[in-house]
Design goal:
Shape: globular
Number of helices: 6
Order of helices and strands: EHHEEEHEHEEHH
Number of strands: 7
Strand order of the largest sheet: 1-2-3-4-5-7-6
Radius of gyration: 17 Å
Distance between the termini: 11 Å
Number of domains: 1
Structural class: alpha+beta
CATH superfamily: Gcn5-related N-acetyltransferase (GNAT)
Strand content: 25-35%
């Protein structure tokens, strides 16, 4: 049945908040993949999405109208000197693992972040997580640091791996200035990126 589904990668909307929460909550409550320990309210999810979208892409993947995964970028640290950097996150409904959804979401996310002018991308991965390491390695991330026993969740101290990616052709900040908000990119260019990622995913089904 799933093989006949039609997939779409698009910008997240406030009306996606419940679906996003439904995907994210089990990761919070049952795993150490995220260090978030308290499940947010629906209002908190909506507000966080709105905050992220002021500067960064926040994407969802739909199968036949059902949101089954999401990915976004966010600031690494608050100081202005870090503003050309972004940390990436992706979460997929476990029923849809192994379908290429994370790859399609990241394909669009990378293109949008590059167009905005971001230079360095980071992934922060709770160990062990071979699937996440493989995903980021596929996109050219390299391992740069392990923080030992830096987070305590579900009764254990957890190690965290940092992976990094330097965007090819990233210019000196003096040349291209501050990264553009997503809504300042050409709308047709954004639509093309999302359509290409959707086609990639549909072809993989």
């Amino acid at each position: 049945m799933h093989s006949r589904s039609k997939a779409q990668i698009r910008i997240a909307k406030s009306t996606d908040s419940q679906a996003i929460l439904d995907i994210y909550a089990p990761y919070i409550e049952q795993t150490a993949i995220t260090f978030t320990s308290r499940t947010p309210t629906l209002g908190q999810v909506t507000r966080t999405m709105s905050d992220i979208k002021r500067r960064y892409p926040y994407l969802v993947c739909e199968f036949d109208g059902e949101v089954v995964g999401f990915a976004y970028a966010y600031r690494v640290r608050p100081q202005e000197a870090y503003r050309w950097n972004a940390e990436l996150s992706v979460y997929i409904n476990p029923d849809f693992h192994g379908r290429g959804i994370a790859t399609a979401l990241y394909t669009a996310l990378f293109q949008l972040l590059k167009a905005q002018g971001y230079c360095n991308l980071y992934a922060v991965i709770t160990l062990p997580n071979e699937a996440s390491i493989a995903l980021h390695s596929h996109f050219g991330f390299t391992q740069c640091m392990v923080q030992r026993a830096c987070g305590y969740k579900l009764g254990e101290w957890r190690d965290v791996l940092w992976m990094e990616y330097r965007v090819p052709g990233a210019a000196d900040p003096g040349e291209h200035g501050v990264p553009l908000p997503l809504d300042e990119l050409n709308a047709n260019d954004v639509a093309t990126v999302l359509a290409m990622a959707s086609t990639l995913l549909n072809n993989a089904q």
